[in-house]
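Researcher: Here's a chain I'd like modeled. Treat it as a single chain, no partners, no ligands.
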Amino acid sequence: MRLLEGGTVVDADGVLDADVLIDGDTIELVGDASDATVDERVDVSGQFVVPGMIDTHVHLMMDARPDAESLQGDSEATMAYRAAENLRKQAKAGVTTTRDLGAAETLAIDAREAVADGQILGPRVQSAGKNVVMTGGHGHWFGREADGPHEVRKAVREQLKAGADAIKCMATGGVLTTGAQTGAPELTPEELEALVDTADAAGVPTAAHCHGTQGIKNAVLAGIDSVEHGTFMDEQAAELMADRDTYWVPTLSALKGIVENRDAGIPEQAVEKGEDAAQRMAAAWEYALDAGVPIAMGTDAGTPFNRHEDAAHELAYMVEYGLDAEGALEAATVNAADLLGLDDTGLIEKGHRSDLLVLPENPLEDVLAWQSPEQVYVAGEQVR
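Model: Modeled as a single isolated chain. Structure tokens:
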């Protein structure tokens, strides 16, 4: 057993000066463990022990290059090596659970098994398999194209058969696909309903890539569990999401990566769409915060200049847009765990997985503290 001794525990339940006793992959005790018989004592006096970050939206096969579409033609082996390196970087940076929302073939599902079997270093992985997308729609080159409710049902069932933990679809166009209109609806309301019904029958959560206002509303009315991006959210869409407890995963890191690197080789059409989306995001945040939309952290890591090891930057961006530091902590821990259907992580309490970070400063006072973990434990294994 390992004892993190003398630190301050900070999670969604509050702040507590306490030791944290780790027994393998499980937290055994939070409190006074000075008399415990342990194998190792780690002095974390003056430091802050927090739950590991949960990134609910990544793309393991992508490497933050300027032109994401240039990945077309890469072999599955090449993408697998890249995914393994991205997982290592995530773990070192303090991401202890990650969810891939779209990869070629079974790449992310296989990565999940490789991490679970100890073959590669990384956070616990959930995977949506291949995105369900209309023919020629956003991300079609690595998705499962399907048209009409019947084809959509089959596409969902294929992902479930392959072992997907979630089902992801493209409800609107996107920034990085040539020719796609960012805000335009792609899957129809009937197709979205078929997707949600099929996933719900298997007890699997759903996520919808949505930029445009109508696409957001279509997805929420269909019963989707999370709206990814939500860039053109209006007041009505925000209230609808709040009423139905639909999570918002804003992925600010994706837009920041584009607009802050507009002259670094990103295709011109993607820059134009990204800048338009970024201009609309401030209003979306105002509507979401006013309505009380539940928010979970997701970075869309792998998109241009949006590196997997920079996940903690998302928390600073959320605070920049008006979320307080406590809300950012919740978004990266308990809210993200709830969205992913995990009841064994997100808090520091007895019986939870020992997914822990040791930070130099209190993240409730300085959100940048998340970017500099001094120690990282993934299921009790120290990876940093």
